[in-house]
Write a structure and sequence with these properties.
heterodimer, A: mainly alpha, Four Helix Bundle (Hemerythrin (Met), subunit A), B: mainly alpha, two-stranded antiparallel ribbon, 20 helices, 2 strands, 1% strand, globular, disordered N terminus, binds protoporphyrin IX containing FE, binds copper (II) ion
């Protein structure tokens, strides 16, 4: 099968994300890339744990003063749900249901923006209420770098999914773009998994002490 | 190529190389750029040795000396050794597995240009206020307080170059996983391909920690963060960990491909199957794995405590076991073989004792208690030069002679090749053997001069004379290269006559689609098997058909160039108001180019069957 071929429901293969050689390459390449990303975040987590609550003066806010469970809970729910909606999108992709896929992807993007919104609010809250900034202490630098790296990944993922949606809005699915959608959704899941760790290591462990 | 290639002028060739996505041309780009940086790093080494030749010398100032040693180490590791190995991986690995290109030709080009612009950026520091001066390890306690922009050049330049290496590694991995010719199982892959595979996997997991370390350093130096500011709660040991979690795997990323190169050479010129192939594969994988467990042996004197030191000491010594397996397998490959003393074989011969010396001192420095004595002395300098020069650089020189005909279609002169070898080999031992003793006698590393009468004078002079020998060797090699290309005598598929693997089954240099028909692989040393069965070449695994090829693209250049611009903005944003706009401009170029790439469909093109038949009739094979 050629990537450019016009597709129909009948012709659509069971695993459109890895039918052509290019797609197989993309599929494995992306998994490997995520392996590298895992080490990247592992390094950031290690740095954060080493610098947690390391502040220059006794007045500075510590993790247990900062974090607030309800807000983090909302952010977590938004992101976890967005992972679920992207699963639905991929389900429809595999069934050659382009419109439905677009709807679910649209929802994913909305939820993603919701998450970013809470994050922006959260950061500005820390800065204004607690004077906890990127430059105020080693703790601050490590916190904003770890959580901010994740936020930047979310923002990049949103731009990526959006440009895929816009670019392909009039073209429907093909074996050329199916792997692209699939890989973007893999990325999105990865971001979600990283968040689960951030939620546990930064927020839950932060509040316990 | 007859139907597709047309004559072009210099501009056409240049444009061709700026936009190429062909692994063989990218290999040539890596070879040229890596060779250039090798000469730059070599000149820096010569300056170091001139300064240290006599006591109390003032050939360069103390400050300049620090910059020179920093740039020497950084250049040699990141901009010379890595890219030169990448050159051979690109040139040979796809051929060895019977592929028409790598999995992601576009990414391959992007990797090269990122490395290239990162390297140029780093070296521009010489002209823009001074080079980095905190050592190639750039320990935070020094780097944070280094004045001027030197360390910023290091941080930003390596960040850009490191991204290139990372995506290059992923590309090689996918290529080997997905693009092997029919019959090319994992356990039939040539050892150079295997070592490329393991080294690429190591790159994938070793480079992200470096990325993080460099990012933290950049945030501290340029954006007011406090990761390494002790007064603000920071901790400089974090840098040491991140650097060595990258750094130790990095030395194996360098040495494994070197092992791969020598494995090929021993088999080819002993005209015998590599002894203990499967144990070689096993040892390679094991070294790759253990390479991640030993980083703290660089930090024995940091004060991690006796338990950590003991664990890391034992883990480090364990790596000696698979390495030993390899040494014996090479020796047994020669045993009973009919050995032919070509230039590559000279290097392979010289490599074994040299590398064993490095391995033995490796075990010595891995003994944590003893390392308190060796650490930061010339003993360590001798150790790592024995493994890096005696291993990696000898391999690179050997590979240059071995695969030159495959890359350029001409054969380097053997006599000149052997002259290069003798100068380089004798010079190498002259330079570094004595440094073991300098270290044991107490000469610290990274000092810009020493006082007379401490027993260091004569030994340092000997060491400097050795450096002169090595330089002569390199000059002879350059002369050899120029003369060979001027004479331009073309050679056939298998110029050494004893080729065993698939790259020797196709013309030198190969046509841009490599294999007209993918070959059928029947076992290890695929070509050798066919030769033994009395065949001329490989049996095709597919009928002649259209070949799908990727389009050339200028976008990789633009993506990398954008980061190059942005790096200037980031560096100067605190000094000048144009900094911020320049960051934004650079990132716009980068992300804009990426966006363009993603929205513009690129399906590549097909070479038609008829054109391929044409080629055969015109006798394009050699
Ligand atoms: C038998 C295997 C090896 C062992 C046991 C070993 C052990 C060590 C140890 C313990 C050190 C730290 C010494 C100190 O700073 O006090 C060291 C330094 C070093 N080793 Fe090795 N090594 C081995 C192989 C290699 C290889 C294959 C390479 C490179 C291709 C290499 C490159 C280096 C470098 C560059 C340094 C110095 C880093 C610096 O401080 O600037 N080593 N080695
Ligand atoms: Cu090491």
């Amino acid at each position: 099968m050629h990537a450019e071929e016009k597709m129909t429901y009948e012709k659509w293969p069971a695993a459109p994300e890895k039918t052509t050689l290019e797609a197989k390459n993309k599929f494995i390449g992306f998994w490997l890339f995520l392996g590298g990303e895992t080490t990247l975040f592992a390094s950031l987590f290690a740095t954060y744990l080493a610098l947690k609550d390391k502040v220059p003066s006794t007045e500075a806010a510590l993790a247990k003063d900062l974090f607030d469970l309800p807000l983090t809970f909302v952010a977590t729910m938004l992101l976890l749900t967005s992972s679920l909606t992207s699963v639905y999108a991929m389900y429809h992709m595999k069934n050659f249901a382009f419109k439905k896929m677009m709807v679910w992807l649209g929802l994913t993007v909305l939820l993603g923006f919701g998450f970013l919104g809470t994050e922006v609010y959260e950061f500005s809250h820390y800065v204004h209420t607690y004077k906890h900034t990127f430059t105020s202490s080693a703790f601050g630098s490590a916190f904003y770098t770890l959580v901010g790296f994740h936020g930047a990944h979310v923002a990049f993922g949103l731009c990526w999914i959006l440009s895929l949606m816009i670019r392909n809005s009039k073209r429907g699915l093909s074996l050329y773009n199916a792997p692209k959608f699939y890989v973007a959704s893999l990325y999105w899941h990865f971001i979600d998994v990283v968040w689960v760790f951030i939620f546990t290591v930064v927020y839950l462990m932060g509040m316990v002490g | 190529m007859s139907t597709i290639a047309q004559k072009k002028g210099f501009g056409g060739t240049l444009w061709d190389f700026l936009t190429t996505v062909d692994h063989k041309k990218i290999a040539i780009l890596y070879l040229i750029a890596g060779g250039f940086f090798f000469v730059v790093g070599g000149l820096e080494a010569v300056f170091i040795r001139i300064q240290l030749a006599v006591p109390n010398n003032d050939f360069v100032s103390a400050g300049a000396f620090n910059q020179i040693i920093t740039m020497h180490g950084t250049t040699m590791i990141f901009l010379a050794a890595m890219p030169l190995l990448f050159a051979f991986m690109n040139a040979v690995m796809p051929l060895q597995i019977g592929a028409r290109d790598v999995a992601f030709p576009f990414v391959n080009a992007l990797g090269f240009w990122l490395f290239f612009f990162g390297g140029i950026f780093l070296n521009l520091s010489w002209f823009l206020g001074g080079a980095p001066d905190a050592g190639w390890t750039s320990y935070a306690s020094l780097a944070i307080h280094s004045k001027g922009h030197g360390v910023d050049f290091y941080v930003l330049g390596l960040q850009i170059a490191g991204l290139g290496t990372l995506i290059g590694g992923i590309n090689f991995l996918v290529t080997i996983i997905n693009m092997r010719a029919p019959g090319m199982t994992y356990m039939r892959m040539p050892l150079f391909t295997w070592s490329t595979f393991v080294a690429s996997a190591m790159i994938l997991f070793a480079f992200p920690p470096l990325t993080v370390g460099l990012t933290l350093m950049m945030f501290d130096r340029l954006f007011g963060a406090n990761f390494f500011e002790v007064a603000m709660g920071g901790n400089t040991v974090i840098w040491e960990h991140l650097f060595w979690i990258f750094g130790h795997p990095e030395v194996y990323i360098l040495i494994l491909p070197a092992f791969g190169i020598f494995s090929e050479i021993f088999a080819i010129f002993s005209r015998k199957r590599l002894f203990g192939y499967s144990s070689m594969v096993f040892a390679t994988v094991l070294i790759g794995f253990l390479g991640f467990m030993v980083w703290a042996h660089h930090m024995f004197t940091t004060g991690l405590g006796p338990v950590a030191n003991a664990i890391f000491a034992v883990a480090t010594m364990a790596i000696g076991v698979p390495t030993g397996i390899k040494i014996f397998n090479w020796l047994f490959t020669m045993w009973g073989g009919s050995v032919k003393f070509t230039t590559p074989m000279y290097y392979a011969f010289g490599f074994i004792p040299s590398f064993v010396c490095g391995g033995v001192t490796g075990i010595m420095v891995a003994t944590a208690a003893a390392d308190y004595q060796y650490h930061d002395t010339y003993f360590v300098v001798a150790h790592f030069h024995y493994v890096i020069v005696g291993g990696v650089v000898l391999a690179i020189l050997a590979a240059t002679h071995l695969w030159w005909p495959k890359m350029f279609g001409t054969m380097l002169n053997e006599t000149l090749g052997k002259i290069t070898f003798w100068f380089f080999f004798i010079g190498f031992h002259l330079t570094f053997f004595i440094q073991h003793f300098l270290g044991l006698w107490g000469m610290p590393r990274r000092v810009f001069t020493y006082l007379p009468g401490q027993g260091f004078d004569a030994s340092n002079m000997v060491s400097s004379i050795g450096a002169a020998f090595m330089s002569i060797g390199v000059l002879v090699l350059l002369y050899n290269i120029i003369m060979t290309q001027v004479k331009n005598v073309k050679v056939g598929n298998d110029p050494w006559g004893d080729g065993r693997t698939l790259e020797w089954a196709i013309p030198s240099p190969p046509p841009f689609y490599n294999f007209k028909q993918l070959p059928l692989v029947r076992g290890l040393d695929a070509l050798w098997l066919e030769k033994m069965a009395g065949k001329k070449g490989m049996t095709p695994a597919e009928p002649l058909g259209d070949i799908h090829m990727p389009n050339a693209s200028f976008i990789p250049f633009m993506i990398s160039f954008g980061l190059f611009i942005a790096a200037f903005g980031a560096m100067y944003h605190k000094d000048y108001s144009w900094g911020l706009p320049v960051i934004i401009l650079g990132l716009l170029v980068t992300f804009g180019s990426m966006f363009l790439r993603s929205i513009k469909d690129d399906h590549g093109f097909h070479i038609h069957k008829e054109d391929l038949v044409d080629d055969t009739e015109k006798g394009a094979k050699a």
